[in-house]
Amino acid sequence: MEKTTIAFIGCGNMGSALARGILASTTLSERFAVLAYDLDPQKSAALSERGASVVSSPEEAAQKAELLLLAVKPYQVEGVIEQMYPYLSHKILLSIAGGVRLSTLRTYVSDKCPCAQIMPNTPAMVGEGLFGICLDDPTLPGERKEQLLELFKGLGRVFPLPENRMNAFSAVAGCGPAYVFQLMDAIMEGAVTLGFTRREAAEMVGGLFSGSARLMLETGRHPMELHSCVTSPGGQTIAGTNHMARTAIRGHLIDAVLAAFARGKEMEEGN
């Protein structure tokens, strides 16, 4: 089977994580060849050690690859597309830049090639990513849509979404790891206060979150149902969760998601 070449333009944390995921997967590496470009040669060189081919510019990437994945800062997207523009015919442009809508990408390419918007989250760095993917571009061929869905399913869980729901996905799943890490840190501080070492606290809390998430997903039970299973009458757990209720932890978390959503709307509007 002839491989499809995917170029990563930008090899920072997320771009390199996705590239490494493809290179490390037996199934994906049989179907995709990886090119890497970054302004910092050391970042692309690190991927070459894992099997990627290094290119020297976005223009060269656009000439050699069928799929062009922009993993650059949002303010850099338009300029990078301008560099690649002469070579975009018969290509597919993908972007993981936060706040850059599919319609904006299509404006930048002037309908010279189909586009897709991808929103990953940082657990993709360990093969546990969530991907919001918008394939609403009417010029994107059906076989390419299937190929992109299979690609990202090989790297994590995929949520195909219309353009108008991508910001909401970002506020929940894209920003979500930061919410979780803050909660983890707070519980770890409690553990250290009770006399556990930081290593012990990290191992306990890491297992706590991963095990709890797996329990919810594998049983299909609602989190509040599982919460009730833990809270014995008059016990320790209900004392702790009552304190959380009195201090409005639940409401603050909801407000955090809504604040991220509002900021995403501002970013989409160029503010």
Topology, element by element:
Layout (H helix, E strand, L loop, with lengths): L3 E6 L3 H12 L1 H6 E6 L3 H8 L4 E2 L3 H7 L2 E4 L6 H8 L7 E4 L6 H8 L5 E5 L9 E6 L7 H12 L2 E5 L5 H9 L1 H18 L4 H22 L3 H8 L5 H11 L2 H20 L3
Parallel strand pairs: 1-2, 1-4, 2-3, 4-5, 5-6, 7-8
Antiparallel strand pairs: 6-7
Helix pairs in contact: 4-5, 8-13, 9-10
Helix-strand string:
EHHEHEHEHEHEEHEHHHHHH
Strand order, largest beta sheet: 3-2-1-4-5-6-7-8
Strand tally, please?
Answer: 8
**CATH architecture designation of the largest domain:** 3-Layer(aba) Sandwich
Average pLDDT, all residues: 95
Helix and strand composition category: alpha/beta
Q: Kindly report the CATH topology of the largest domain.
A: Rossmann fold
Largest sheet: 8 strands, mixed
Unreliable residue runs: none
Q: How many angstroms separate the termini?
A: 46 Å
| Separate helix tally | 13
Strand fraction equals 5-15%
Total count of domains: 2
For the record, the CATH class of the largest domain is: Alpha Beta
Computed CA radius of gyration, to the nearest angstrom:
21 Å
Shape annotation = elongated
The helicity comes to: 40-55%
